[in-house]
Amino acid sequence: xxxxxxxxxxxxxxxxxxxxxxxxxxxxxxxxxxxxxxxxxxxxxxxxxxxxxxxxxxxxxxxxxxxxxxxxxxxxxxxxxxxxxxxxxxxxxxxxxxxxxxxxxxxxxxxxxxxxxxxxxxxxxxx
Length: 127
Description:
With 127 residues, the protein is mostly helical. The protein has helices at 2-5, 15-41, 53-65, 77-87, 101-126. The protein is globular.
């Protein structure tokens, strides 16, 4: 959690700000741990059990925009975890299999940011 959050870079003004960040980071850390354990222990679990379909589509749109070739729809949670790592530059070897938790954390953060942007654009279009 320490390396994934970059807590030193946040320059928080008060202890209350730190508490809020830690609460958010704790939720994210549990989600990352849950995803990586699930990808290792039950890799065939459908990706839609952990992510809405539109978020998986957005992940693949981001990968295609970065120039990744052969981006296929991830059918299972293992493929989505690998794609989250690919989103932030992880290229796990076939021996390693899955990206490390830091890369999954960073990929999840990037995906969450893209989801917020997508949702904000959708809200503006509805106005």
